[in-house]
Every structure is written in C-alpha cells, then in structure tokens.
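The following block was generated as part of the benchmark described in Methods. Ligand: iron/sulfur cluster.
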Amino acid sequence: MAADPLIPVPGVIQAPVSTADWNRWQWQMQNQITSVAALVSLRPDLKNHPLIQNEPMDEKTLRLAGLRMGISPWYASLIDAGRVDCPILLQGLPRQAEIQADPFIDPDPLAEELYMPVPDLTHRYPDRVLWYLHHSCAVYCRFCMRRRKVSQPAPAAADQLDSIVQYIRSQPQIQEVILSGGDPLALADSRLEKILSTLFSIPQLISIRIHTRMPVVLPMRITPELCAILRQFFPLNLVTHFNHPQELTAASHIALRCLRQAGVQLFNQSVLLKGINDSLAIQSDLARRLIASGVTPAYLHRADEIPGTAHFHTRLDLGAEIIAGLRGHLPGYAVPRYIVDLPGGGGKVPHEKTYYQGVIAPNHPMDANTPQDKTPAGFGVRRHLFENYEHRQFQIREIELRPNPDVSNNGLH
Ligand code: SF4
C-alpha cells in the first residue's frame, strides 16, 4: 500500500495505468522514463517545450556521451509545461550543456574512490564511512556528484556486507555509517532490513544515516511496510534532498510524516543550482515548507565540480549571501549551513570564517594551475582558499560561463 491516501494518476499523464499500479513504487521504477521521446509520449504537453525543441538529446547522443537519463513517472507528472524554467524539468532533462566543453574533467573530484579501503566503502573522515549500497535511482539528477556511478547501467558491485562489516569492526574509531548510492531505498525492503539489523548489532556505531531522494522523486517508496521496518531501529537518521519548494508536494508531505511517525529523524540537504534555486526567496520558501513537513533544513551545498555540470554553478559567495539573508527570518534551527566540498578529498567545510580564507591573489603560490585546470575559452576562473578541519589548504575554482571567448581567466565578478 502506498502513502495514504492513494495518489490518483495526474491528468497530464498519458499512460494506461491504474491508480493501484501508479501507487506501487516498483511500477514507478520499472516504468522509469529513459529517453526524451518517452517523456514526450507520457507528457505530450511537453512536445513544444523550448528545452525539448531547442536542445534535442536523442538516445544515441546520450549513449555516445556515456550519459543516462531516468525520471520516475511521478516526478515527470510534476513538470510544469507552461514554465520555460520549470525546476523539475531542469533537474531531470539532459541538456546540450552537458556534452559541451566544460572546465571540469575529473569524474571523481572529491577523491571518493581514493579513500576506499574495501569496494563500495569510502572512509574519508576518521569517525564515519559512506557505503554505496546501490547505483540505481528513481531519477538521475543532471547535477549528480556521483554521475560516474549512477550513469553506469551495470548494477552495484556484488554484495559487500561481510567485508564492510569486517572493516568497520577493525576500525574502532568509526562511529557512523552513511548509507548512500545511488539511492539506498531503491533496494528491496528485506535487503534493507538485513543491512540495518547487521549495522545496529555493531556496538561501536552510534549513528546510522540514510541518504535518499525517494521522498522527493518517488514518495510512493515510503510505504507503511518500509516505515514498519525503519521503526525497529533507533536512532535512525534520514537525509533527504529537496532542492525546490515545487518538489514538496502533498504526497511528499505524507511520506515525510510517515517517516517521522516511525521515529526517523529527518534532515534535508539541497544543492545550490543556477536557474533552479539560486535565490533568497526560493531558499526561504523551501526551508519553511521543510519545517512544515517535519524536516530540518541542514545543508545547502555548493555544486561539485563534476564534468558536464558547469551550467549549474553559481558564484561561490552566493550561497553564503542567501544563508545570511535567511538568518533572523527563520528559526535558527531552520537555517541551513552553506557547505563546500573540497576537491581532492579535503572533505566538507562550511563557507564560514574559520575555513574560508578569501580570494587567492594573483602570484600567490596557490594561484597556479592544477592538473584539473584545462579551462576552455569562454570560462572565467577565480580561485578561493579554504582550510579543512586538518588545517590543510585547498583551492576552489569558481567558474563562470562567459559569452565572449576572448575574456581573460582572471578577475571574475
Ligand atoms: S538521487 Fe542522488 S545519487 Fe541519484 S542521481 Fe540524484 S543526486 Fe545522484
């Protein structure tokens, strides 16, 4: 049974599907939209949408570029065909910008694979590990920082439960396991239950965290059966990923309430995305709606430097300015922190005084090209200096698309 009450098939959807099937998360996963043609077939009102008309991305183009498209029928039903800048469409539709010249060339700029002591487990911080449970998602978000994994049609590596548990037990400083992917809730209930009960039997762990977009892109996944499983485990934290208030539908609200009633602590992380949620008004509305659904808005992330995502990047300081604008107008617990993930495995740091040391001046020793710096014409670059929790210094490149290919690579404003 899906989230109560059953969600009727929206009138915009042109598919022979019963309400009962529409509400089955397995049906939604099995009928994932994997091409623009299939999207238009399900949503004929999108046929003349400018993003679809002006930026054709057929299956062959996607395949040659190694890109994967995936949108759950539910998420597709939320697209506003009358808006050129619909935030749902912009997050799910592959665009030409993804296959054009881009300053980002490293598919793993955060060095997650480098800090992998056993397959499918990243151990970057002393006290916690991140386990890639699954490479499948209900929606393949165009800005995804794990594009290198979720764009691969191959399933996740074979079951690593034994080797991962063995590793955690051998490292007594590990106190938290983050279940991520892909989307861990794409796994079957029985598999999730086994993993959770195994982890909760390890005495050194004080926290288990699930990272999932299911409450956003497939609220039908939050079934009473799943909530009954989660209810057995305490304390359980779940970090979801709403980027725009338009995503916080009545169905999502019900799914989140079910999770809260099952005793799950809810947090949200969002990514600052140009043209989607890069304004104070949108972030303020999002935070208010999250609070109303029982979710603490924890983090606003700077978009990571993933190939094919430069068009989503904003000015680096914009996130900090938005957070400053929220302060005083929302309860303190509802103001997220603006987080920058440092390239090369430096880890996450807030864009705050202790960690952010300012723009790197010309001729500073760190104002130098790194192996990743192959900035094509038409992009401007400004370098910022951060220090991580280990007091190591890292450079962040702020990228801006510029219409004039003759501009210099310095002095970005
Ligand atoms: S749901 Fe998460 S892991 Fe999956 S594509 Fe979206 S951002 Fe990436």
